[in-house]
Design a protein that fits this description.
- This protein is α+β, with helices and mostly antiparallel strands and 381 residues long.
- It folds into 3 domains: 109 residues, Butyryl-Coa Dehydrogenase, subunit A, domain 1; 111 residues, Butyryl-CoA Dehydrogenase, subunit A, domain 2, CATH 2.40.110; 147 residues, Butyryl-CoA Dehydrogenase, subunit A, domain 3 (Up-down Bundle).
- The strands form 3 sheets. It has a 4-stranded mixed sheet.
- Helix 7 packs antiparallel against helix 10.
- The chain is globular, with a radius of gyration of 21 Å.
Length: 381
């Protein structure tokens, strides 16, 4: 069993870390306070190939292995979780399903602009009345000649307004349950496609999240992804992989908060000695470091399984996402506690990490959903 990264993976990790420190960190606080999207960072991210990590080189991407992808997302999240989720979404839930399930024509049309960073992508499964219960969605697509007419709405979609391409699920066969759901590739310039106002969020304020409304939106039949009825299968297969990216994001947030806590503990003095000399603080840091290491190993394990095509990926990615997100939430809480009252101040990065981390136990499947997936797999086995 090899726990070491190869030379290419170490190089990618260092490259992304250097970019995050030099280009992203200086503007993190300003973007968060202004709730300003990271558009100024997109050219640099594209130049490094980070906006097309999962797309094969034949379609303009960098075709990285999943471990390298996880490393890159972790390093971005360590500095700016908003940047990490923007990059993760356009890669893992937009380009990934198109690359995996799309026709040669669809890949040739949609992937190169996304992979080169000329466009951003998103994913539309959640609706105002259906989140965790994804099969209860109401958006409807009716075949009409060489098109589908789509009506309905989507909620909590990352990269709205700034995105151009979205993989969207809608019902094509009413009454058939999950088997009646189909997947479509939509572009934001289609008639009847409307972005709704973006959400005012607790955290991840430099990313854009909001809704999409479809009013007699006419979608070319050639934009059907897979076959009719494949939508839920495509969605679940996509989330099975994308949860590795969210796990990596959580690890990065935890690592960033942990480093801030260590720095503060060394600098802050109480009772005539550094805070780091107090055993209570030492124990908190020791627990955090151990839990982060375990979360990272679970994440890399799932990524390695995906690269190897090993069975059991659904369980492994859910374990990674569950443990990493819950760990990150706990680590950020400890980091704020170590800072004391200053941890409650926006002048310190741990306050932002504390807000940013909270959603990692919710999106792309809540912690409760991950436990359901894991339990079903265990009992089935």
């Amino acid at each position: 069993m090899d726990f070491e990264l190869n030379d290419d993976q170490r190089m990618i990790r260092q490259m992304v870390r250097d970019f995050a420190e030099e280009k992203i960190r200086p503007g993190v606080l300003e973007r968060d306070e202004a709730e300003r999207f990271i558009d100024d960072l997109l050219p640099g991210l594209a130049e490094l190939g980070l906006l097309g990590m999962v797309t094969p080189e034949a379609y303009g991407g960098t075709g990285l292995d999943t471990v390298s992808y996880a490393l890159a997302i972790e390093e971005l999240a360590r500095v700016c979780p908003s940047t990490a989720v923007t990059v993760s979404v356009t890669n893992s839930v937009c380009q990934e399903p198109i690359a995996r399930f799309g026709t040669p024509e669809q890949k040739k049309r949609f992937l190169p602009p996304l992979a080169k960073g000329e466009q951003l992508g998103g994913f539309g499964l959640t609706e105002p009345g259906s989140g965790t219960d994804a099969a209860a969605l109401q958006s409807r697509a009716v075949k009409d000649g060489d098109s589908y007419v789509l009506n309905g709405s989507k909620a909590w979609i990352t990269n709205v307004h700034v995105g151009k391409v979205f993989v969207v699920m809608a019902i094509t066969t009413p009454g058939a349950g999950a088997k009646g759901i189909s997947a479509f590739i939509l572009t934001s310039d289609l008639p009847g496609f409307h972005f709704l106002p973006h959400e005012k969020k607790m955290g991840l304020k430099a990313s854009i999240t909001g809704g999409i409304a479809f009013e007699d939106c006419r979608v070319p039949a050639g934009n059907l992804l897979g076959s009719e009825g494949d939508g839920m299968k495509i969605a679940l297969a996509t989330l099975e992989v994308s949860r590795i990216g969210i796990a990596a994001q959580a690890v990065g947030i935890a690592q960033g908060a942990f480093e801030e806590a260590v720095r503060y503990a060394r600098e802050r003095h109480t009772f005539n000695k550094p805070l780091s000399d107090h055993q209570a603080i030492q124990f908190m840091l020791a627990d955090a470091a151990s839990e982060i290491a375990a979360a990272r190993l679970l994440t890399h394990r799932a990524a390695s399984m995906r690269d190897a095509g090993a069975p059991g990926l659904s369980k492994a990615s859910s374990m990674a996402k569950l443990f990493a997100s819950e760990t990150a939430k706990a680590v950020c809480d400890s980091a704020v506690q170590i800072h004391g009252a200053y941890g409650y101040s926006r002048e310190y990065a741990v306050e932002r990490f504390y807000r940013d981390v909270r959603v990692t136990t919710i999106y792309e499947g809540t912690s409760e959903v991950q436990r359901m997936v894991i339990a079903r797999s265990l009992l089935k086995d």
